[in-house]
Amino acid sequence: MIHSIKAVIKIRLLKWYLAALVLFAIILALSPQQIPVVIYKFSLVLLSAVVGYHLDRSLFPYASPGGYLYNKWKEFGPDFYTQKYIEETQLEESLDNKIPASLPSKLCAEYPVLDEYRTLFAVVLIRRALIVFAVILGVTLGL
Questions:
Q1: Whole-angstrom Cα Rg for the chain
Q2: Torsion of CA 29, 32, 36, 39, to 10 degrees
Q3: For the segment 55-107, what is each residue's pLDDT rounded down to a tens digit?
Q4: Whole-model pTM?
């Protein structure tokens, strides 16, 4: 029982899911005839986010954020670099005849970016966010 509670608590964005359910329940209680409209508008927002993402991918096929990483992120898991960094640090410390200190994995990036492309990587992420935002805004204001 305790394990299932911990699993539920670790759900990403749990507070937002609960807030959405509470707001949906309020709409259901106050104005049940608006439920189809809310579902329709929510599906439009989700659809426009998907369209915006694929629009960015089709407009800029060679400028994907994954292209600026050290390695292909799909081949290596998020713990690959963390474990590699910990092993290298412990090896260096053992060569210096020091006791290896415990290294928290939060000091390492899950998917490190090439040093020369950090600014470009940030610009690519902002570009994608702006394109998705513009499509969502266009769809929601237009309908």
A1: 22
A2: -10
A3: 999 999 998 888 888 777 667 665 665 666 666 666 555 555 554 444 455 55
A4: 0.67
